[in-house]
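Final report, closing paragraph on structural work. Over the funding period we assembled a curated collection of sequence-structure pairs, and we close with a single example.
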Amino acid sequence: MSEAATRLQVYLAHRRALVEYATPLVGSRAQAEDLVQEAYFRFVRACGQPDIRQPASYLYRIVRNLAVDLMRSLAAEGRRNLAYAETIEPDLLSPSPEEALLHRKELDEVAAALAELPDEKRLAFEMSRLGGVPFHEIARHLGVSTASANRMAQDALLHVMRRLNRAKG
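Its predicted structure, as stored:
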């Protein structure tokens, strides 16, 4: 059996465990799977190197090093983004008093529109739009079908939009 085939067998035998190992290191299973795949490519490219006595340990070390590199890269990117955000004029980040007043009035209209709704429609709207809860969970919470939960949230949204349009003009 060739060295590349042997390494493939080692990788396949440890792939699931490698993903489980990498997931907490990088914070996401999807990133961990990508990282483990990249580790395999590096593992295979090392075929020309002297004999590796513990190939599984070597593979884990590659995964760990790639995870550390990824986290360093993400941290550096975050620092660059923060430095960029600090260069933007503060006036552009905060609304003027006039804009703040307009936004406050709109929020008051939204609150009044939601208060006019039946409790189930208001709750469906709040859970989906403000809480990001999927409709199947909203439906289970309200004891209705998923389609009904979706329809209630849509009806509430239309009511809020109509109220805002009446207030503007």
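The chain has eight helices and no strands. The chain has a mean pLDDT of 87. We thank the funder for supporting this effort.
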